[in-house]
Model the fold of this input.
Amino acid sequence: MLDQNNEVGAFFVYPEESAYNKCYYNENTYYAFKEKLPKVDTFGLEDFCNEFIQLNKSSKQLDLDFLYKIEAEFTFYKNLNQQLISSQSTTRQFHTRPYYKYSTQSENLNYLQLGYKKVLSVLDEFKPDVILDSEDSELLRTILNEIAYRKQIPYINIDYPRYEKYKIPTFNLGLKVGSFFEKEYNKFLKSDYALLGNEIAYINNARNKNEIMSSEFKGTITSQYKPSNLLKVLKYIIIKALYFFNVYVVKKNFKVVSNKSPIFTSPLKHFYFYLKVEIKKQILYRKNKYFQIPVKDEQYVYMPLHLIPESTTFVKAPFYVNELFLIEQISKSLPITWKLYVKEHQAMIGERSLQFYKKIKQFPNVRLVQFNFYDDPKPWIENSKGVITISGSTAYEAAILGKKSVVFADVPFKLLEGVTKVDSFEKLASSFAEFGEIDNIKSCAAYIAAVKSVGTEIDIKYLISESEAIINGDANVSEKFDKNISLLVSFYNKAYLINDSQNLEY
Done:
């Protein structure tokens, strides 16, 4: 961008990233931009954090007029309380990470008013023609999304259609399916089968293979089904200890977090949390009293749990983040002889309280199943009557396998035949009653064709990890890296043209 004489700015929306002194946490992000990219206008949140701390300490009254103003002008996608749910710092009541502080109503309102003032000041100073982003979490990003819509600034972000490593553009943080994508899907749905030959072959191959998990998750915690060996765990704990020692002691960031503000996490509680998680993992990855093996020929609806907190739920489905409450409602809605099979997410093993599992097991028609009984989601889906998930990729996988599913969020794959998006618990019983075999191969093929048409195949996880290694001096720019950077540029160029040519809603 700079080599094309564009004016470029970078806005870091995580408070600690710019409020902390230079350390392991931010040396390859905020400080790398400040020190190595002098031509980029870098915006951080150090002033925001200081103002937030001082405002909470003082007895100064809230700027109610400003709050009423932003509530009137910047709630196109979500009201202000729903916007607050996009940050872990203001949602401790909804998750189980004890290193976050419970925020008060006053602190939340201060966060909102200062957050809006900060984002408005950055946009007024820099005046961007377009905003490019690659993540969808955190409160200031949600605020940026609302303001960009109001100011009619194209805000291009990445959405995950779950077809291999393809990404499609979103102009609203993935809060609803873009009309451009729906039109493309319908175009392919109306086309001849002959035009979808490659996509149909892909689906048939997926149905014949033993595994359904996307390559996007290979090598991540999501694909881990066996406990880590104790030496690896010990090494991990030592690395974490050294990391926290560097961030909070050597670089003197302990003083920054000592004010107990909800925007900063407690380092001691954070490290202790990691330690407990690793110990609990060693128990839960093995045979234990909490998880049960599936019962042969039992009729069930499959419900894989989510990583909580995460943007796929807290940003995209803020009304459905209480999974225990969801399980309760689903259990009331099942056909009388069916069970609900609840499977824990591998990334949550060790994080969730054991009390949570005990409560699930109290429901007589719910079975908390052994998450690593199979080493892929496919058998769980194939043996089920159907799938229910908040916003997870299992609904996409179920459609590819010819199974019906229910989701609670406006995910791209809700377009697929057999995927039902519900907005009321009262609709669950009728949705389950419609579960059964479905011939949706053309719908799936049209969906994949639409993803390939508007999207781009990019290895984002590789780009992030490799970029950090290059900045650190641990790796050189390779042909593979250059190729993925070019693909990312191509993705944003294509997205900008889609937005520009169709005069889309932002």
The first helix runs from residue 15 to 19.
